[in-house]
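pasting for ref
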Amino acid sequence: MPTLGCSVQNCVNNEGGFCGANTIIVDGEEAYTSSQTQCETYRPETLTNAFKAMTNTNFPGEIAQIFSSREEILITPEVECTAKNCFYNANNRCEARNIMIVENRENEMKNQCETFLDNH
């Protein structure tokens, strides 16, 4: 299972730089750069979104993470990916060992998969 970090601070799934979602979807079907991808699981941190996110929360991972060291990452979601031009995409699953979701440099209201690597 990949290790996923997230620096999108205002996401309801962000748990101190880790992703608390059970599964995330990285979108970018026609992407050729990181800035053309985005985490479709991102939701702004609001009370309504917190309740909605509960159906996709990795509760066992969150509990295990609380009782582990900061260096040991146990809260890791499954990563589905539509970025067919990414080197790490294997049958719509991300095969990268380390994945990083960051704020989009061009539009701070969006995010992007920094791990995207064009396979052409």
